[in-house]
TrEMBL record:
Domain Alanine racemase N-terminal: 7-225
Top-level lineage group: Bacteria
InterPro entries registered for this protein in UniProt: Ala_racemase (IPR000821), Ala_racemase_N (IPR001608), PLP-binding_barrel (IPR029066)
One GO CC annotation: cytosol
EC number(s) per entry: 5.1.1.12
Name of the protein in its database record: Ornithine racemase
Keyword NAD tagged: no
Cited Pfam families: Ala_racemase_N
Keywords noted in UniProt: Isomerase, Pyridoxal phosphate
One of the record's GO molecular function terms: ornithine racemase activity
Length: 371
């Protein structure tokens, strides 16, 4: 069997690490949980650590969060599909919006459900993903103000996810100024500017976050300890909260070069081989994991001297060289994973999910409230 393990203590450590940074800088933040793909075991573990505000881009995941923790504020962090307005209002306390017709649909549903639905208006700041053009903001905001049961709790922006545009002090200052202009012209108050994400965290360390930027949405840095801005890691944070484990189902000494005429493989590629290895052999293992579950290029064996040769839909081939670890059929091999590897494995129903509780849930809660 193959399975992915979440280390609960390391998750708690990373959460407290970030929470101290945000508290010190008077910044509120929410956990982006879409990486967990709504898995109940992992969501329970996360909610033991952080339950104030959880973001996701999948409505079914927000529904699971509401079922597990009704008091947690849920945030839908992409422009909602208009047809989903009823469910958005039901399961998301807040949604990020860019289309007035969709907000009107949310307003109608909020009236029917006797709720106040909160929204964040997303602005285009150069990334060219979601966001209204700044020149339209005043009129857009004015229209939204007329809608019943809708409360604008912030403006926000998204950077780095599509075209890799990095946040900087100038962009964030402009965003704060846009908020001030809207507040002055419409005689209102907008409590939050949700402009921070994992990629923005390094700007905090450099004191380049303008006053007024007071809300972050963080997933990758929490789960991987990554400095997304500089493509490195944040000192003091764990990078190995997740671990992938696969069982050896075959282990045989085989030639290093295949025999016969080669066409394309399952993925449409013709693998290249080092001809200097012709006539040589090595110990090869097959593990019960394939490209249906994970991209082999996004995982790394934790034991030195093991090389991933390739994979088919449900099997992965490893070169164990001389098998210095004396692996046998039934043994398991562990792999580190990057963000996309975890996301794909979490989305596979064929990979089991395991929580590594070094501390029980009650102790986790105590620790979370004392940091």
């Amino acid at each position: 069997m193959s399975y992915i393990t979440l280390n609960s203590q390391k998750l708690l450590h990373n959460y407290n690490f970030l929470n101290q940074i945000f508290e010190k800088n008077n910044i509120e933040w929410a956990v982006v949980a879409k990486l967990l793909c709504g898995n109940e075991k992992f969501l329970k573990c996360l909610l033991d650590v952080a339950k104030k505000e959880i973001c996701d881009s999948r409505l079914t995941n927000l529904r699971h969060i509401k079922e597990l923790s009704p008091k947690t504020q849920t945030v839908y962090i992409k422009p909602p599909a208009k047809r989903l307005a009823k469910s958005i209002v039901k399961y998301a306390d807040v949604s990020f919006n860019t289309e007035i017709d969709t907000i009107k649909a949310l307003s109608d549903e909020a009236v029917l459900q006797n709720k106040i639905h909160k929204i964040v208006i997303m602005l285009e700041m150069g990334e060219l993903r979601e966001g209204i053009m700044v020149k339209n903001l005043s009129n857009f905001y004015g229209e939204v103000l007329q809608l019943p049961n809708i409360e604008v709790v912030g403006i926000g922006t998204n950077l780095n996810c599509l075209n890799g545009i990095l946040p900087d002090e100038k962009k964030l200052f402009k965003l704060n100024r846009f908020k001030e202009i809207i507040e002055e012209s419409h005689h209102t108050k907008i409590p939050h500017i949700s402009a921070g994400s994992s990629v923005t965290i390094p700007l905090i360390f450099e004191n380049k976050i303008p006053e007024g930027i007071n809300h972050f949405r963080v997933g990758e840095s929490l789960f991987f300890g990554t400095d997304v801005y500089n493509d490195s890691t944040i000192g003091g944070m764990h990078q190995d909260i997740f671990r992938l484990t696969a069982e050896i189902i075959e282990i045989v000494e085989k030639p290093m070069i295949p025999a016969g005429d080669a066409g394309t493989n399952l993925t449409g590629e013709t693998p290249m081989h080092d001809e200097t290895n012709r006539g040589k052999t090595s110990v090869r293992a097959i593990v019960d994991l394939g490209i249906l579950d994970v991209d082999p290029k996004q995982i790394v064996p934790l034991s030195a001297g093991i090389e991933i040769i390739g994979a088919s839909s449900d099997m992965m081939i490893l070169d164990l060289s001389d098998n210095i670890y004396n692996f046998q059929v039934g043994d398991t091999i562990d792999f580190s994973m990057n963000y996309m590897a975890v996301l794909r494995a979490m989305n596979s129903e064929y990979v089991d999910k395991v929580v590594d509780y070094k501390t029980n849930a009650k102790q986790l809660k105590i620790l979370a409230h004392t940091h």
